[in-house]
Amino acid sequence: MSASKAKIVVLGGDGIGPEVTQEAVSVLQAIATRFGHEFQFEEHLIGGAAIDATGSALPPSTAAACLTADAVLLGAVGGPKWSDPAAKVRPEQGLLAIRKALGLFANLRPVTLHPAVLDASPLKAHILEGTDIMVVRELTGGIYFGEKHRTADSATDVCTYTVEEIRRVTRVAAQLARGRRKSIVSVDKANVLETSRLWRSTVEQVIRSEFPDIALEHMLVDSAAMHLIRKPSSFDVLLTENMFGDILTDEASMLAGSMGLLPSASLGAGRLGLYEPIHGSAPDIAGKGLANPYGAILSAAMLLRHSLDLTTAASVVESAVGAAIAEGVRTGDLAAGATPATTRAAGAAVVKKILQ
After folding, report:
1. Which CATH number is associated with domain 1-105+265-356?
2. Smallest Cα–Cα separation from 329: which of 342, 318, 319?
3. CATH 3.40.50.720 correct for 122-255
4. Against a cut of 0.90, is the pTM above it?
5. What is the pLDDT of residue 337?
6. Residues 219-253: pLDDT tens digits?
7. What is d(CA 123, CA 134) in angstroms, rounded to the nearest whole number?
């Protein structure tokens, strides 16, 4: 893959997914125009839309296309239509399957605050000042992927971790920390769980032997949840196992004022990554032009940075989003009484900033 030529698979998915990914694609096309890059976009099905069309949440053709891509841009999956927990095929299975197929094990969720919309957060501005967090969540282990058993009167979900799973995600967190403030808080429940004791000792070993320049602190998950609200600016890189990370990142999203602002990247050993906003499919507002596309657009910025190594272009996208928000182009989740911008108008504002 040439840095200026790339194949990007677009998985719009369900609900508002296609709407927000379309704005992200428009932004990537603007970047290609400005910097002379050549991006080829290829659309495929995943989630509920794929179930309706093929009976599978991840059709083989989608998986094959993603494996030959340089990066994958995803919208969201799921909705009430497919929400029966007893169903054999559910949209979320497509998301888990694509992560497995692509060998993705580290989920990056940056929590960056935009000064112009601090009033959208439920926390007071002075508490939020200086907050800039990178959450690194392990994706392949833990209770989500352990053995599961169900009987008429009991159920079991087994939580399992291997040393190698912990080592590789710790290395990702440490490399990111080296480019930031060189500080990691590793989250666990080592006072109760054996998997957390393995997590803690393995993280300690990797940092001590391979990254002695990184400051490491261990924190119990309940304490981390409290400190995210009490003093969020104290965190730099937050390293966590799968389920804890799932919960804490939703909590952290409220620091920014809206889930609609936050992007994510799921990475493996190579350059290929999966990029998606952290929000869900929001079927109640799908097709109405109400969805916030900034999380998807910022996910596209992460795609430029981590999969295509186009760091300048990524920064241009991030600056354009910040400028659009500062000028008052805000969807309903951020409008705070003002007339909200449509999904398309928000995306167009970012494109304009990039091309001007």
Report:
1. 3.40.718.10
2. 342
3. no
4. yes
5. 66
6. 999 999 999 999 999 999 999 999 999 999 989 98
7. 19
